[in-house]
Write a structure and sequence with these properties.
This protein is mainly alpha-helical. It is built from 10 helices and 10 strands.
């Protein structure tokens, strides 16, 4: 995460902030160097927040963006079976030469969904004057998705409760603006269900995608999921985008869902996160879904409890509460704990 570099003013007193800055009484006509940023609609009157932004470093985000583009292009060109070509370079090059347009289409669709998600976060941080990094896209060419999503470094303790909610919900909602039309286009090219069951991986669609599927293809009703071999780049990108959105909205720690839960519930969100983590561990052990061990360990390492904001006592207005609870319910529509299986 990037460290905040800002000077914040609050009328009437001098005190250190959580990030090591200082709150000082704002003069009447100055300053000229800091930029005036809104502190969020409905904040306490006669309070201004002045923030000096440190310029985010764009070198490594650009490197990660390029690497993620290559990674997603590769898995799309090999039809989401990257591990089958490890060491078989003689077989790989003809496949890439023949199917590079499909890889390019998948790369464009999935990077568009993830990029719009991160752009939503970044826009919200700029609107509120909160220090944040450029997004870091995470390539992983050995899995069928080609990516683990993207992250953005955020100085949470520079944001108050309302601002934290605004930043947290902006990303998922912006990503869905792209993911839902992409899913609709992908479903248009979906062939009829196969008469014989698939012997390879099957993707389990989340509820949102199932509802869209019933609209466009009622003949798919009762099918366990999408066989990997019949998926087109649009539908695969939409499935990955929806699933990553749902995963990221789980109310734990530094995930978007953790931000939303803390903005809505305050410190009560810690008990929700701990309960969910224990339930996830029980699920891993009972269902023997050991592929979730790494993700669970990473969440524990990053911290299960959300850190405090700059102003926890600031109440949320009704619009923010409604929007926050709507976004908090999105994992029910977008996430499935068993994304891939072999029937």
């Amino acid at each position: 995460m990037t460290e905040p570099s800002g000077i914040s003013t609050q009328a009437g007193r001098l005190e250190p902030s959580a990030a090591g800055d200082q709150h000082v009484t704002a003069p009447a006509a100055e300053p000229s160097t800091p930029s005036l940023a809104p502190s969020g609609a409905g904040d306490q009157p006669f309070t201004a927040r002045l923030t000096v932004h440190s310029k985010p470093n764009g070198f490594w985000p650009l490197i990660c963006l390029a690497a993620c583009g290559v990674s997603t292009w590769f898995v799309g060109a090999v039809h989401w079976r990257p591990t089958e070509y490890i060491g078989n370079w003689g077989t790989l090059w003809p496949v890439l030469a023949a199917h590079w347009p499909k890889g390019l289409l998948y790369m464009t669709a999935i990077m568009g969904i993830l990029g719009m998600h991160e752009l939503g976060h970044f826009w919200a941080t700029r609107r509120h004057g909160i220090s944040a990094s450029y997004p870091y896209f995470l390539p992983l060419p050995i899995v069928p998705f080609g990516t683990l999503g993207a992250v953005i470094g955020l100085a949470e303790q520079q944001a108050n409760r309302r601002q934290l909610l605004d930043v947290a919900v902006a990303g998922p909602l912006a990503g869905l603006i792209i993911a839902i039309p992409v899913a609709w286009i992908g479903l248009a090219d979906l062939p009829p269900p196969q008469p014989t069951p698939s012997r390879g991986f099957v993707l389990q669609p989340p509820w949102l995608l199932q509802w869209m599927l019933q609209w466009r293809h009622p003949e798919w009703a009762g099918q366990p999921g999408f066989p990997l071999e019949i998926l087109n780049p649009w539908l695969m990108a939409a499935w990955v985008g929806l699933w990553i959105t749902g995963l990221n909205l789980l109310p734990i720690g530094q995930l978007d869902g953790g931000h939303v839960a803390y903005a809505l519930l305050g410190r009560k969100a810690h008990w929700l996160a701990r309960t969910l983590l224990l339930a996830a561990i029980a699920y891993i052990l009972v269902a023997e879904r050991y592929e979730w061990v790494l993700m669970t360990a990473l969440l524990c390492l990053l911290g299960v409890d959300h850190p405090p904001t700059a102003q926890d006592e600031l109440p949320l207005d009704r619009k923010r509460c409604l929007l926050g609870w709507i976004v908090a319910g999105l994992p029910i529509l977008c996430f499935t704990p068993q994304p891939m299986f072999i029937p």
